[in-house]
Amino acid sequence: MSNPLRIYVPVKRVIDYAVKVRVNPAKTDVDRSVKHSMNPFDEIAIEEAVRMKEKDKKIEVVAISCGTTKSQETLRTALAMGADRAVHVEVKDDSTLQPLAVAKLLQAYTATQENKPDLFILGKQAIDDDASQTGQMLAGLLNWPQTTFASKVELEGQTLKVTREIDGGLETVQAKLPAVITTDLRLNEPRYASLPNIMKAKKKPLVKLTPEDLGIDISPRILTLKVEEPAKRVGGRKVDSVDDLIDKLKNEAKTLSHTSFDTGYSADCTEFCPLVDSTDYLAYETKNDAQVRKGKLYLFTVDPKNKNGLQQQQVIEGPAILDMKWSHALVENRKVLGVVDSIGGLQLHHLTDAGELESLAHCQVSEPDVLCLSLDWASRVNKDDHRIAISHSNGELSIVVPSESEWKVADQWHAHDLEAWITAFNYWDTRTLYSGADDGLFKGWDSRSQTPQFTNKRHSMGVTTMQSSPFQEHTLVTGSYDENIYFWDTRSMRMPLKTVQTPGGGIWRLKWHPTEANLLLSASMHAGAFVINTNTHEIVNSFLDHTSMVYGADWSYVHKDWVASCSFYDHTMHLWDASTTA
Amino acid sequence: MSSPLRPKVIDLYKQLVYLGREYPAGYEDFFRPRLKAAFMKKKDLRDEEDIKKALLHGDYIIKELEAMYYLRKYRTLRKRYTNEA
Hints:
The complex is a heterodimer. By secondary structure, chain A is mainly β. Chain A is built from seven helices and 39 strands. Chain A starts with a strand and ends in a 5-residue tail after the last strand. Chain A: This is Electron transfer flavoprotein alpha/beta-subunit N-terminal domain-containing protein.
């Protein structure tokens, strides 16, 4: 150690680490009329420099701070800890002093031969802005090597060996002086600046200058628009008994099952009748586990005001059902339910005045070895178009139309190379039909000429559900196994309007609320069922009581905000109140 | 009582006052009354050896306070700046 070494340690005066920081009433800044002290990481930097000096007396430690007059207190602490002298770059308002400006000031001050440094040691970040930029920017301006987040420093002659704390563990690097080091928490234990040392520090030299003296423009490049407190954490509560817990969940948490029904068979589809009169009818289908070919169709009446709100009215046995939808428009004055099955068939039932489902018509849409996977009525908004679109397991799409007393396949075409999980009409322009498939693609078609209008690759996994908004003319929502919900403007399918990521599971069905334009229900398989506010992208309600994959979910049209959801392996349907307090 | 140890006692008191500003339980209501009481208890000491012992005890308290402050700061910062799951 022959040559004297000059170490500069920049220090910053910050709000003391133990102070509870408060935002000012104008929400533009924090309240700065509180206790301040030296940035703790800078204390570690000073300590490291002083320890090096204690090992080699030829080392000079210079503390430097950029800030208001009060920064001199911080410099005095640095001197009390063992720095030899201090430099104060006085600034009128340091709340707008940003790392780049500080780095420029440090470079400018040390540019002259008499001030030349061999080493800069800085704290890795300031605890007020947590920028972690000054050291790195300074090294960049000086074109010096930087060894950041140092947890161990060894200096031998002109060679620096530094152990860094990084995400994966520890990394040891070597650099030649001059260099920049930033300190991490575990580098050393800083000594306390005791009163006798504080007194002695008053005698050590302190030099003052301004940014103008150095010819540096310190105006900020970044403007803080708003400062806000983080959301308050709501505390948990203790309950006294199990009854109390259930009572609280029912009345306050609101997402406990009101009623549930176990059919004994795997369930995956549930649909409320949208034709509103006094009784709320719910159709629900299940599959026989043993042979996926057979299933049952249940009809329930729903009355949430009743403890036994779910009353089974009827059961119809038949082939396994994959999807069903009520027509929103009366078909020849009848309330009709369309059901598609695993043997390529479409069965139409109508709801009699007596409250029973009666078979209306059947159409063999595809070969019996091809499954029908979904259907959609064109008449949700356009009440005169009674066509039904059906998607198939072989990637085909079919259009079925009523013709006298029969329902016939009008068109059928190859749409996808894998299972076409879903098809949906654009309710506002029923000439356009959408389809989504297991290859992750979804396409738009001119349903009259079967010509493709677009192919969209946005989803990364199979597209399982889509629905045109019954309220907003150009809005389409799509969901996928990839857990993402995309909202589209149907006039411009290049990019989604917004994306909502669901908490996992994969989406099987999305259903728009019957009356609120911004609420969407998601049957999210393993993750349960969710209600999403499409304006705020937030999940405003969740039902997590299903113990198996939730495939079916639907809103009630009679009882506002009530939802029925069904899960597959535990063959249970739950009825719950999805009204949101928001 | 004028003895060469008097300035040392006063220095010790001043140091403890300085350290007490940061005391978590509060300076005015907790630390200062206790500090005063502790010194008042020893105010009648006359024997030099006894006074030296008391001064050493004072130094020990200073070290304890400094260590406590350091640990408190370290633990808070470690919690804040590590992603402890």
